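Re: the request from the purification team.
They wanted to know what the chain is likely to look like in 3D before they choose a buffer screen. I agreed to run a prediction and write the result into the notebook, where they can find it.
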Amino acid sequence: MAREVRLTGIVLHANAAPCFHHCRYCQLRTSKPRAVSFSGFEKLVNRFLDWRIVSGRPEFEVWPWYGNSHEHDEEMLLGLRSIGRRLGYESDVVLLGGVAHRSMPEMRAWLQERRAAGIDTVVATFSGDREKHDYWNNKEGNWQFQLDTLHLAADMGFRLQERVLLLRDNLPSLERLFDALDTVEAAERNRWAIPLFYSGRAKRLESQRLTEGDFAALPKRIRDSLRGDHEKWRSERRWVELVREEGEPGPEEISPMLRVTEENLAWAEPLSCDEIIAALEERWRAAYAAMPSRRELCDGYSDPQGDKVYMFLGQMEHLWLDRYLAKNPAGFDIRSTHFF
């Protein structure tokens, strides 16, 4: 059964911010950025935001993304915040993941620069205690750097957000991690834990994914830290039940992605926004029409007894598609889907 889609927006995906970590669980296929001038990226984003107003389509979503890392120079920092204001969701957080290691005096100046730009929350992601975290983040000394930065940020009056990644390998170390985090005297903090995503490099780590039994056995302290949407997470068998109960969905809402490279910036320059969207829409509609439906993937490539837990149906479907592709040649352009 062919998939039906409905276009609701566009993703402008650059993956160009410098990243100084190469986490083993990165959601991207590679953590090595591709050089894209920020001025060119910003100009393209603003073209679409202007077009949205002129064309009378304020509901058309524009999703700009310049990279996972928040290692931004002044031009990037102010430019991204300006884009956020135009979109109506200016972020007030800065992520430590991917940021270059600096001395604490240097980090104080770095944080002061961000506070002057309107940022009030520092976010650190931990994948275990000490050496466990450094292994999974693939960066020696990163655990200590992030902890020291949290102490500094709390002293400077920033809000803190502590994210904890759950892997089978790091479960025994999480109590020690929480003890260390509790030494940070923050006026306001939020801490939550999540399982692995199924994307990028993390797709290789299915042996580390927690099962229903693993979640049931978590110590209360860890279980109480699960992100607020954890009741919606499901094991594979529960996702199978849901898909079979609900049947095929109506038209899927998609936002085709333009992978912003210098080459694609040059391609887009002489085209109108309507022409860019039309070219992307043609490729993406063709790809979705040729790939198996969600129900076909569920019926043919799911494990009805699977007990590993996934946060979203989209991640579960991605795994089913990968199982399909392992046995069947791709009869569609997977790059023109959100499964690439």
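For the purification team: The chain is about 40% helix and 15% strand.
Please add any questions underneath this entry.
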